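User: For my dataset I need records formatted as: sequence, then C-alpha cells, nothing else. Please produce one.
Assistant:
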Amino acid sequence: MFTLVLPLMKVPLMTLIWKIYLLIYTATIDNDNPLPHWLSLDAITGEFSGRPGNNDVGLIQINLIATDKSFTSASDSFVLTVINANDSPRVVQPIPNQTVFEETSFLFTFDENTFTDDDIFDSLTYTMAIENYQIPPNKMQIV
C-alpha cells in the first residue's frame, strides 16, 4: 500500500479565527487525465493512497492543484515512481501424481505452462527434490 501525506500549511491562529481557511486538492496525470484506478487522493486532507500492481511499474507524473474558498489556486507536479517488486512464481497447472513399476524406466515431462511468473523479464529455473530419499538422487535427473 502506498500513502503520501502532504504537509499541512502553517497558518497563524489569528488568521484561522478571522476567516475559515480551507484548501481543496485535486490531482491529474499527464494531459489532465484522471489518476490511475489504483491511486486516489483525499480532496480534504491531501492524502494520496493506493496499491499499484505489477502492470503499474514505471513513472507517473502527478499534477496537484490546491484551490481555496475564493477559487484561486496553485499547482505543482511531482513524479511518483512505482518500483517492481519480485513476484514469486505460481503453479498454474498442478502436476498430477505419477506411477512407475519397479525395475522399469520412468520418463516424465511436465507441461511448459505448469508454472508462471508475473515478472515479464524473469526466467524460471527448475529443481527437483525427493521427498523421502528412497530413490538415490544420482538415479534421477532433470533434462
